[in-house]
TrEMBL record:
It is a peripheral membrane protein. Part of the signal recognition particle protein translocation system, which is composed of SRP and FtsY. It comes from Streptomyces cinerochromogenes. The keyword Cell membrane applies. It catalyses: GTP + H2O = GDP + phosphate + H(+). This is Signal recognition particle receptor FtsY.
């Protein structure tokens, strides 16, 4: 029994000791962490602390803002200067005086069909009826026309009969005289651009597309500038794509201002504005390039008549130049008749009169319209448009 009581006492003592240890551990508080060590901060050598006296700044290398590596971000935007648009260089056209003489080599390519052919036939020892028929055929083939051909052959018959013996020089002189009579040397072929009572002179250029109408207008501007005139161009061909751009390029080359309107716009409105602009600028001449769709289109002819009437609200037209392709022959005469019915043609410009053209068209078109050829185009060059000179033309046809 005593043993049991002793065991119980020992157990109670042990449990009491264990309980005291547990309670004591719970009541024990953790030690606070040691205070952090304060780092030594060194002030910038050149900057004072707040409230302290400023230190004497010391010389040391410094970096610019461009040298400092900035944190990542969008790259700086570089603004580029817009490119400078240079004005086109103004060209100086070659003088028009004697231009046809200088271009005689090109014109003389047409002589085989007319001049040389006639000289060969007239040089035969016996000029029988067959020979005279060949002379007629040569003239007709060269597009001289029926009536002018008959007149020329008749005069040649009479003069050869009177002359008798014929040397090559005599025949050449004879043919030269008769061709000059046929073409006409007493006709005023000046392009009228200087009205006496006003300024500017107004010139309208008409013709079928494909004859070189717009190009001729641009070349005519060069002819006028070469003669010391100032020019405004009116791009009234609003129906053909790029016609206004083409004309403006021609104008920029010689310093001529171009008036243009919207594509497919009213041609009469552009023509009216061009004349108005020419008056305000005080230029010498206004050149108006008109639309040139097929001459069989009634609407086009009505348009041309409207352009003429609208322009004449400013002032009368001084020239209406019809541009014809010399290679089209009799087809060109058909076009000429239709245009002449709508607007009063005052002069003719023959283009492509270089090599394949038949020189007789000069005679035929003058007879058909009763107006003179005033300008001829002899090639693709910018200065290949020349005032028509009958003597230089005939000399090129028959050779020297």
């Amino acid at each position: 029994m005593e043993t049991v009581i002793l065991a119980v006492v020992i157990a109670v003592v042990v449990l009491g000791a264990l309980g005291g240890l547990i309670v004591g551990s719970r009541r024990r508080k953790p030690l606070p962490p040691p205070p952090p060590t304060t780092p030594d901060i060194t002030a910038p050598p050149a900057e004072p602390h707040v409230g302290d006296e400023a230190e004497t700044p010391r010389d040391e290398p410094r970096r610019t803002i461009e040298e400092v590596d900035l944190p990542g971000g969008p790259a700086p935007v570089v603004v580029e200067e817009p490119p400078t648009v240079e004005a086109p260089e103004i060209e100086i056209p070659e003088p028009t005086a004697g231009r046809l003489v200088r271009l005689r080599a090109r014109l003389s390519r047409s002589q085989n069909a007319l001049g040389q052919g006639l000289l060969t036939l007239l040089s035969r020892e016996h000029l029988d009826e067959d020979t005279w028929e060949e002379i007629e055929d040569t003239l007709l083939t060269a597009d001289v026309g029926v009536q002018p051909t008959q007149e020329l052959v008749e005069r040649l018959r009479e003069r050869v009969k009177v002359l008798g013996t014929r040397t090559p020089e005599e025949l050449r002189g004879l043919l030269r005289e008769e061709l000059l009579k046929l073409i006409g040397t007493d006709v005023d072929r000046t392009v009228k651009t200087e009205p006496e009572d006003r300024k500017p002179g107004i010139v309208m250029v008409v013709g079928v597309n494909g004859t070189g109408k717009t190009t001729t207008t641009g070349k005519l501007a060069r002819v006028l500038v070469a003669d010391g005139r100032t020019v405004v161009l009116g791009a009234a061909d609003t129906f053909r794509a790029a016609a206004a751009d083409q004309l403006q390029t021609w104008g920029e080359r010689v310093g001529a201002y171009t008036v243009r309107g919207p594509e497919a716009g009213d041609p009469a409105s552009v023509a009216f504005d061009a004349v108005k602009e020419g008056k305000e600028m005080g230029v010498d001449v206004v050149l108006i390039d008109t639309a040139g769709r097929l001459h069989t289109k009634t609407g086009l002819m009505d348009e041309l008549g409207k352009v003429k009437r609208v322009v004449e609200k400013h002032a009368p037209l001084d020239e209406v130049l019809l541009v014809l392709d010399a290679t089209t022959g009799q087809n060109g005469l058909v076009q000429a008749r239709v245009f002449a019915e709508v607007v009063d043609i005052t002069g003719i410009v023959l283009t492509k009169l270089d090599g394949t053209a038949k020189g007789g068209i000069v005679v035929a078109v003058q007879r058909e319209l009763g107006v003179p050829v005033k300008l001829v185009g002899l090639g693709e060059g910018a200065d290949d448009l020349a005032p028509f000179e009958p003597e230089a033309f005939v000399d090129a046809l028959i050779g020297e």
